[in-house]
Fold:
Amino acid sequence: MTRIESSEPVWLTAPKNRTAEAGLREAAAAAYAVNGDAGRAIALARELDGTVPRPGSGRPGSGAAGTLRLFETLASLAAADLTAARVAEAHLDALAILDQAGVEPAGLAAGGGTAPSWGVFAAEGAGSRLDATPVAEAGETDGEPWRIDGTKPWCSLAGSLSHALVTAHTSPSTRRLFLVDLADPGITVRTDAWVGRGLPAVPSGPVEFRGVPARPVGDDDWYLRRPGFAWGGIGVAACWWGGAVGLARRVWESVLEREPDQIALAHLGALDIALTAAGVSLAAGAAAIDAGDAVGDQGALLAARVRGQVAHVVDEVITRTGHALGPAPLAFDARHAARVADLQLYVRQHHAERDDAALGRRLRGAGVSPW
Structure:
């Protein structure tokens, strides 16, 4: 029997060609080398530019790589190292958003003339608010300069990235997406608030904006209305799933190290059932996106279902892995212990019962049986 190394790629379906297999193997190996280091993760995210398909870019029967390859790449990164996946997912999502908006970030560069590194800061929080105000200048059009002021919560790696897409209020009831240069002197990254033991190299504390120039991306509420909002949410779930695969591989290794008892085999079988079901759901979601069947309400419903299913599976995998392996790998295996802590924090982007209730509300509002 052959062990599965942590740097092995993750497949949602059988690989279609050797080029695809080689690409995923290289991405997984590069993610394994990140080993929780944010700088290496940012460098890897930049390297993935142009090599990973945009969501919705495949079409049935066209032979194009499309969304499935994107999800497999994100999952492969996460199975190897969750810091790598967390950083790359946001970077690639930002590039996909700009592509959807038809915005070419021409002329942007990070320090030393390197390609920009991107974050997406769109979370809201009680007691925090970011407001956008147009700067009136004669002759300006839709591209007129704006400025943003206030505090934005949950800004991952704001002190390390070069640029970000940020949502800000343009009225009490509307928000708009803006492109900002994170090197602007009006930006203050709060480094004192982040105490997370999971993803410790990816601090996601609040950022203060004071008169920061901002370039609008799309019109009011476009960011939330666009089909890619749902697709990006499923991409995050692909990262959660990949992280769970990384944990389950440790259980697989354990049954090869010594003769397993019935309990160990039962855990292994249950892990396979749960992960396979969630993987099928992700693959079906990718196919629906590329077929044009995941837009509007259907896209939102698909994202809610897939994210919910994957999140529940991740919770089960974390619990079963702990039961199967006991305390030893948490105490003596640095990568395993980090992966557990990282995944526990990362998957909490799904709001558990609250997101389940939101799905139930959506189903009730449709007025027809979902099954």
